[in-house]
Structure formats: structure tokens, C-alpha cells
Amino acid sequence: MHSLIFRFIDICMLRAGPQDLPASASLLRVLLALNILVGTLVSFPLSGFDRALLEVVIDVVLLALLLYAGLQWRGLPRRFTQIFLALQGTGIIFGMLMMPVVYQLVAANAVNESAPVAALVWWGLVFWNVTIFAHILRHGFDIRLGLAFALAIAYIVLFWQVSNVIFAGTA
């Protein structure tokens, strides 16, 4: 388990890719549950528990569907488990890094203060997360990094749009 954690850190540092992970469905189920938990805890102060949980589940399902369809289209369906595992594992790491930053930003906002350092850290983590997402897609789909970045950003925009439609009219 210890070496697996370091493998996810290596992916985050661009030293490894999804191909360096085991294609384990049982490990994927565990990491999927952990990622949903961590993602919900990160989003909770922004949108409440129910909405945060639903947003994370929508994200995971949409990502899985598009990833599976894309891999089928490219003729690479056997890579799904490793790529999705890489995305879930790195998602847990980023969620844990993001959690204190989000909580600090929410606390500062609650007392009408700004937290410029926390905001800068937040943007840095967002950019790094998109970079890792693109890195995983590049390796998983055997595509150029520029296209992988475009796909990562397109996914984020699509998720925002889907989320906006689902949560339209709710506060």
C-alpha cells in the first residue's frame, strides 16, 4: 500500500503514468469511495453536504462514461481501469491538499475578509490538478499533451455546464 501511495505521488509529479498502476477493480472501488468522500468534504462548506455529494457523484459518473466511451473509440478499452484508478488516486491527493485551502477561503469570506495567499494556493492547485489530468489522459490515450490539456479543460467546462443544468434554481 505504501508503494501505491508513492506511485500516485509520482503521477502527480509527472514521473509516472496510469500504465504504472495495477489494473485492479477492487482497488478502484476502494479509491472511488475514498475520492467521493474526500471530494464531498472539500465541497461541503461551499454547497452543503447533499449537493456536494451529488456533485461529486455526477463528476465521477460523467468522467467514467466519457473515459470509457473515448477509450472504446480509440480501441483502448483495456486501459480504463488504470486510467480511472490514476484519476481517482490523484483526485484524493488533490482533495486532501485542497481541503484546508477551501476551508480557509470559506472562513475568511464568512467574516468579510480576503485570504490572498489561500486564493493563490487554490489557483496553483487547480492548475496543477488540470496538468495531472492532462498528463494521465496523454498517457492513457497516447495523445499529445496539448490535446490532452484541451480535453481536460473541455471536461471541466462540460461538468460545470451539466452541474449548472442539474442545480439550476437551487442556491
Task: List the defining traits of the structure above.
single chain; mainly alpha
Report on the structure:
- With 171 residues, this protein is mainly α.
- The protein is 81% helix and 0% strand.
- It has six helices and no strands.
- It has helices at 2-12, 25-47, 49-74, 80-110, 116-141, 145-166.
- Helix 1 (2-12) packs across helix 4 and helix 2 (25-47) runs parallel beside helix 4 (80-110).
- The radius of gyration is 16 Å and the shape is globular.
- Give the oligomeric state: single chain
Number of discrete helical segments: 6
End-to-end Cα distance, whole Å, is 41 Å
| Helical residues, percent | over 70%
The gyration radius over C-alpha positions equals 16 Å
The low-pLDDT segments are none
Secondary-structure element series: HHHHHH
The number of distinct β-strands equals: 0
Q: What is the average of the pLDDT values? A: 95
Overall morphology: globular
| Class based on secondary structure composition and strand pairing | mainly alpha
Helices and strands in order:
Layout: H1 2-12, H2 25-47, H3 49-74, H4 80-110, H5 116-141, H6 145-166
Quick overview of this protein structure:
With 171 residues, this protein is mostly helical. The protein has 6 helices and no strands.
